[in-house]
């Protein structure tokens, strides 16, 4: 693939910005070997139906199937390592006064790369919570049962992720919206920009006056509105943009 040209005007804009927000999606972790959702060949939704695995109804119907699928993905994430795209965002955080990294990813790779101010909109696949809302799970013993049972109330545990039809964590969403509406530059990296409410954030940023930049090899619903579009893989484009 040819190197993506980085416009000098964008480099200057980013260097001058004091407030920067980033929205990342599965594409930034693709180069770490974590599958995206919507890639036509390798995406999770090309092989599995979201309504069978990523909804509260699916978990109620077949908790073991859902638990096992997430256990398999958790294994893959545990084996993955952060890539140059994740690391470029760590470097950016170090040089911007007010920096917010909003991620839809549940893989924890931004934190493992060293990013500090990370807002996880869709949860964290490595954590488990009680499937009964507001039941606080403490430490639980692994008895081998799948899914394991909540030690407090006996209900099945579930992965701490946000499924379709579920509300995003309120404080995380509010912080993401505030960052989007107050930043000067908003980078949208590796997301198909189709899942709401996260997909609304770049548009909200632009309405508030931010310069919106899309880093994605493929076009998305954001592409025609973005102020700059960098059509390449995050692991190459972000280090070049931030060099
Ligand atoms: C690269 C690359 C490389 C490849 N470099 N790039 C408004 C309109 C229509 C529908 C709705 C609406 N508002 C809400 C909805 C419903 C629904 C929704 O949005 N549906 C749409 C799909 C139509 N939203 C919800 O249900 C949300 N909840 C909600 O709104 O609740 C309301 C409520 C309020 C009060 C009470 C109750 C309810 C919840 C959404 C949860 C999404 N969950 C998932 C699963 C998380 C757990 C898990 O991991 O299993 O989140 S679905 C999945 O999609 C996952 C992702 O975070 C999310 C976004 O995907 P992402 O990251 O964009 O990945 P891909 O695969 O789509 O795209 C990858 C991109 O990378 C591609 O563009 C590639 O080109 C690119 N790429 N390689 C850079 N190397």
TrEMBL record:
Keyword Chloroplast: no
Keyword Metal-binding set for record: yes
Residue stretches making up the Deacetylase sirtuin-type domain: 1-243
Binding residues annotated for NAD(+), in chain numbering: 104-107, 190-192, 216-218, 234
Enzyme Commission number: 2.3.1.286
CDD domains per the UniProt record, alphabetical: SIRT5_Af1_CobB
Stated family: Belongs to the sirtuin family. Class III subfamily.
Function (record text): NAD-dependent lysine deacetylase and desuccinylase that specifically removes acetyl and succinyl groups on target proteins. Modulates the activities of several proteins which are inactive in their acylated form.
Name this protein carries in UniProt: NAD-dependent protein deacylase
Species annotation: Plasticicumulans lactativorans
Lineage: Bacteria, Pseudomonadati, Pseudomonadota, Gammaproteobacteria, Candidatus Competibacteraceae
